[in-house]
Write a structure and sequence with these properties.
The structure is a homotetramer. The first copy, chain A, is α/β, with parallel strands linked by helices. Chain A has helices spanning 8-14, 43-49, 72-85, 107-114, 141-144, 148-159, 204-207, 222-228, 253-272, 278-285, and strands at residues 23-30, 33-40, 54-60, 92-96, 133-136, 163-172, 181-185, 211-221, 247-248. In chain A, helix 4 links the parallel strand 4 and strand 5 (133-136). Chain A starts with 7 loop residues before the first helix and ends with a helix.
Chain lengths: 286, 286, 286, 286
């Protein structure tokens, strides 16, 4: 089944009548944010959602303004979810996946740009109690000639990171979710996810350390846009050949990607540097 | 009628059975380019297409590569159409409309960036036989606080331009036309055209000199994407409320806008500087 | 005399023993800022400093951080000086001079980018009590084919601005002043000032309305760097032919220009929109 | 001795009367390019120039235009020197050192951007006879939290590269050499070179494979500018305290860095892909 979405939440919705027992689900509202937790526990669950077993947390947040400090409440919620999935000690490698030259694919590299790196100063500045954080945006294979997974693995091995946080742009089925949905999982990133570029797996089995994946959808495929807009009973009227592999993205994608990347970087910062406030982090990284 | 397209060609298609006599039409193929000419001659024609009377030439060209000199054949075709609509003498003001910070809206400003300006050297370098050309990208009202039409008019009056070429991003009804359709008209730009921002009219009646409009579609609205994908009989199944005012743009919009802008600038250059080849212009402006 | 500086302050220093009576001078310290006022009152004063008569206020401020709200004290001081030179009512046109593609020349265009334009909403949003402000970055003659002064004049006439604030990068004689000296004058901008590009005069006599010039030095010419480094008695040893027309700029010029531009835009905002705080302005324009 | 230059050529000039036997030197003119070869053969030579033993080839080329294909002659000369220093087979990793956000430091990252990567397609497209090339711009330690040398080593180990080409911005003693001098060496990059940032060594001893370093000067320190401008006998008059650690760079540094990076990328391409012409490479990478 081709779900045309990277969100576990949306995949579960699509098989609503056939969700196996091995897929647990709960949701709650925190302020203006809806938090959904999906846990895939069995092989049947993996097959049903075509995702590896593990936790998938989705936060549906209000649209972001240009000023990320306006979104402090949401940043704290995202940070709490990241924090719950990772160990509280050791060096973290933040890896920004995607192509910084293609705007809807640039969330990973831009998040890295706004992330506070501390690994090089953590020892020499003990007064700040920094957790060591490294951050790299390795580029895509078309630019580097190397599978992204290989670059990350080479760096991860070299610096002996204890955990990897991989940030990537995702595909969604719903235009209303673009730019305001954050999926966090502890399963890493599997081949073929992302916005259409097969990338080699980034996971505990390939890197040897836990891999937290954080993604935000920035594209919907055009067929899905059409299907979403057709009411029950009208599906047969859609001419799929007209839509091909077109990906749809909002016209204001430039500002969406910038805002999302700042919020993700601050959320990662809050999850990793317990002594720094959102304002501190914003001041240190803008 | 809301056509959801700025292309006269597509508006005519939409009222196919009701095209009045006052709308003339012809098409021909030149190599890989299809050239369509629509002429609106009467009030009925104006009302039918909701566009002022005049000539609308559309060139449907093959997808552009990153290297504009590869598209020399298409550049010559576009240049010939521009040349046919303007006087062969006098100072030309190229105005790039749109917001350079929003990628799909940046075709105007980027075309200006690649345009060869000669007005300041035309007299002092007579050996080049330059036609005087000025080029400005006035920004959008949200940035400047001034209607774009007012900025252009102020500059046009001041430098006593004999003709204005206004370049703008357009909306189309078809994703397959994005980035590879050029519409040229001698009617200027009317309020509310472009990608959704009302702009004050740019026309002979407001500027006092002929206004040639050149546009390339970069967005389709999402409802149109859905409608296009639905076969005859299925229209009623579309739930318009789900699509709102979303604009759809290709994922690779960054490179599309750059390529299109270079080709337009070279086409304008060829139309205005008869002594310079595409290679000369590319060399002088890249 | 070629002063190799656009700062009235430095020109006065250079003729220290020969300052005519028609050049008044006073200085004071406000916090960490040194404010110097030079007033040229006579023809002798004009000739001595090679600048038109009028007021030249220089603020020497501490180096700026990346976060402009950190510089609120300095912003208020700059705003107060701007405010003292202009009428408290009417439409203001902010003109950002210089080439945005050459980093040390980009202070004007970047200041415009961060300036709050209100002219288009001042009437429709009376609750904000906005003073009407328009802001344009007309580009340089090499890009547009039009003298910058002509573009500004065309727009100024068209929108009937009551005052122009022209922002430009300057040359200084001292590397220690780059990026942390603000000169404000009520005399407009004269031909040949700026960083070496002759631009047509922008002044009350050419535009018909008062012109406030705000400039910050970003370059020093290399000969001056050498001369500054040579102690008294060693001047004759300098081989001028080795330095030509080279301009010197700090290695971190990219971040300096961004920080300065944000601070100037906020200072202009504070001078013009009395009801908005620095935080309000930063929030509305970032 | 602090030479304030990374060019072996300039260091040798500075100790002209004391060049030990272990420093060989020859120069020749090819068209408009002067090629200088310095070979450090002994410990005395290493100490005299404060550089490791090996070959240092310097090409002084004419100023570059915006169009790199205009510089085909110089590209071929640079390519020939690179080719002479490396094996003709095996995978090459091109590493662009420096900070892409600081213009004079961006030559490394920008060269990578224009480099043709082929490692991922070399096997699947045998008809092109590509030599496998990977290219990465790892960012600087302040951004990533990781020593640049560590990042390169991690990737180099992972992909089993047979050779590394490290591209970096350099410091020179002469403003006339900025942007038009290329130094190529087979000794790698030592700590503390570059424009002032200590970087961990990149060399055969740390990476396990040959490391070719290619550098172009983009900065001169201000004290050197002053000293250069003072004739013999005047040195004592220079007040070093006034110049501190200021680095001088040309005002048009943005365009210089872009032109140099394109030329270096094409030169590397010519050295590695014998079947592709400069035009082919330009077409594939622009």
């Amino acid at each position: 089944m081709n779900f045309r979405t990277d969100l576990a939440l949306e995949r579960r919705e699509l098989i609503y009548d056939n969700v196996p027992d091995g897929v647990k689900f709960e949701e709650k509202i925190e302020g203006k944010t809806k938090i959904t937790r999906i846990k895939i526990e069995t092989k049947e669950g993996e097959e049903a959602l075509n995702k590896p077993r593990g936790n998938y947390i989705t936060l549906e947040i209000p649209p972001l303004s240009a000023n990320p400090t306006e979104s402090e409440t949401e940043i704290e919620l995202i940070a709490a979810e990241i924090s719950a999935l990772i160990s509280q000690k050791g060096c973290v490698l933040v890896a920004g996946l995607g192509n910084h030259n293609i705007t809807p694919d640039a969330i990973g590299p831009k998040t890295v740009e706004y992330t506070l790196s501390t690994r090089h100063v953590a020892e020499s500045m003990p007064q700040f109690n920094f957790r060591p954080v490294a951050a790299v945006a390795p580029g895509v294979m078309g630019q580097t000639g190397i599978e992204t997974g290989e670059v990350i693995r080479g760096i991860c091995d070299r610096i002996k990171a204890d955990c990897v946080i991989a940030v990537d742009a995702l595909a969604s089925r719903s235009v209303s979710r673009l730019g305001c949905t954050v999926q966090i999982s502890d399963t890493g990133i599997s081949p073929g996810s992302g916005v259409g570029n097969a990338r080699r797996e980034l996971s505990q089995s390939t890197l040897g350390v836990p891999v937290i994946a954080i993604g935000v959808p920035t594209v919907v495929d055009a067929l899905t846009v059409a299907q979403d807009a057709v009411k029950s009973g009208g599906e047969a009227f859609i001419d799929k050949s007209k839509l091909g592999s077109l990906m749809v993205t909002p016209r204001e994608i430039d500002s969406v990607v910038t805002s999302v990347s700042k919020v993700l970087a601050l959320s990662i910062g809050r999850a990793l540097q317990k002594d720094l406030s959102v304002s501190d982090l914003y001041f240190l990284t803008q």
